[in-house]
Amino acid sequence: MYLNYFGLQTEPFSIAPDPTFLYMSERHQEALAHLSYGLQGSGGFILLTGEVGTGKTTVSRALLDQLSEETRTAFILNPMLNETELLATLCDEFGIRYAKRNITNKRLTDKLSEFLLAANAEGQQCVVLIDEAQHLRPQVLEQLRLLTNLETNQNKLLRVILIGQPELQDLLRRRELRQLAQRITARYHLLPLQASDTERYINYRLQVAGAQRALFDSNAIKKVHELSGGIPRRLNLLCDRALLAAYNDQVQTVTKAQIKTAARELGEHEQTQRRSSSPLAIAAGILVALCLGVALAAWQLVPASDAALPAAGSSNVQAQQPTSAGAQQGIRQLLQAWQLPQPPSNQPICEWVTDYQLGCAQARLRFDRIVALNLPALLQLADGSWQFIENAQMSPAETWTGEFLALWPLPPGYQLDDPNTYQNWLAKQLQRYRQSDADDLTRLAQTLQQEHGLPITAQLDAVTLAWLTSHHTTLGPRLEGGR
């Protein structure tokens, strides 16, 4: 209805998975890198999780497109199968012929084994991709694990990519699946789009559809990001309805008013949603625990070019999950901000969140320094409860003890076997403050602090690292009202 009015050739915000409109945000690209890394390793299982509509199918399609011609793939879209149906479906997907009468698990397994061995002899790799894998039965997952037992001295003959909602993580924690969980060599939890990616996403799809100008003003984009939480499917629904509202209002540009109209028609809530894409992210928190739990004094005596940068695993300060009723309410609010499910009761939250590419820190810090991190956080109160804060306008309760707990997105490559990705990233950020080859890290830190009005400590302390990461990374959006 609105195509001619806006000069469009096709619907820009259809929810159909049209590859013409494929937009790979930084998070989608990072998820793709993790999956590709998993296929290059020696393990049997690769895991991709994310909330409904975050773009898991987009990532899987991009992965299939970049696989080599030597890769044989089986794509299972309906996971509601028993063991026999799974084996038969794999045979069908790989083009393996078998007798349809009197089939048994053994006969099907034998056929698959022969096929996998022959494919390996020809230099081919076999990959199974299962969508909506949270619906798989434990017995079926165990059957998949048994199939991955086939291996040479160097490689598995079958790789399995499991794609599903966060509940899949919970399923794989079941005791009877612990052997399978240990075989997951790469995993990634796909978070919603950042605010900057939302704008690029909208404009990209409009351009592909034939738009010759911007059709959404900046306030409209901010509002649609807030209401959608950065989830692409919700973005498409809201933007499509907003264009229709603009057509009905006979205006040439979508404004905040049309976004609100679209939200009412779609039943979206008007209040700011506590989703990961809004309060999360600045990467200011990525390294904050380095100064809380890692000794940096050794850095100050060596040239930056030769400095031993912190290992990836050193930035996660382990904090025990609060257990009181008041604390649990705060934990629920904090996890809702990241769109995460509730953690198991017997596992510390700071250990559990690493499955979702998040780090964790619990420490004492001034409130203005916590605000500068631009992260949703919990403040511990004197009675043992925890106050949840998610924007710079909130104030701590009078009984705040000074203790806080916050989560942050880990830098790209953090959980891969190669820690140099993270170390090189940090070195690159500090490099811009080098004035001579003789500058050590003490000098670099002092230069940075002087240039940007930070407390002069000549150390890579919490405030300095927070500023550095929040101003020189795009790992996530910042809090509304934050810097």
Question: Strands, helices and their partners?
Answer:
Blueprint: H1 3-6, H2 26-40, E1 45-50, H3 56-66, E2 71-76, H4 83-94, H5 105-121, E3 125-130, H6 138-147, E4 158-164, H7 167-171, H8 178-181, E5 184-190, H9 195-208, H10 218-228, H11 232-249, H12 256-266, H13 288-293, H14 325-337, H15 349-352, E6 358-364, H16 367-372, E7 377-381, E8 386-389, E9 400-409, H17 420-431, H18 441-452, H19 462-471
Parallel strand pairs: 1-4, 1-5, 2-3, 3-4
Antiparallel strand pairs: 6-9, 7-8, 7-9
Helix pairs in contact: 2-3, 4-5, 9-10, 10-11, 10-12, 11-12
Give me the side-by-side strand order of the main sheet.
Answer: 2-3-4-1-5
Question: Class of the largest domain in CATH?
Answer: Alpha Beta
CATH level-3 fold name of the largest domain: Rossmann fold
Q: What is the percentage of strand-forming residues? A: 5-15%
Q: What overall geometry do the principal axes of the alpha carbons give?
A: globular
The parts where pLDDT drops under 50 for at least 5 residues are: 270-321, 473-483
Order of helices and strands: HHEHEHHEHEHHEHHHHHHHEHEEEHHH
General description of the model:
There is one protein chain. The two termini are 41 Å apart. Helices cover 40% and strands 12% of the residues. The strands form two sheets. A five-stranded parallel sheet has the order 2-3-4-1-5, with helices on both faces. The chain is globular. It folds into three domains: 4-8 and 208-271, Helicase, Ruva Protein, domain 3, CATH 1.10.8; 26-190, P-loop containing nucleotide triphosphate hydrolases (Rossmann fold, 3-Layer(aba) Sandwich); 346-472, no CATH class. It is built from 19 helices and nine strands. It is an alpha/beta fold and 483 residues long. The relative contact order is 0.11. Mean pLDDT is 76; it is low at 270-321 and 473-483.
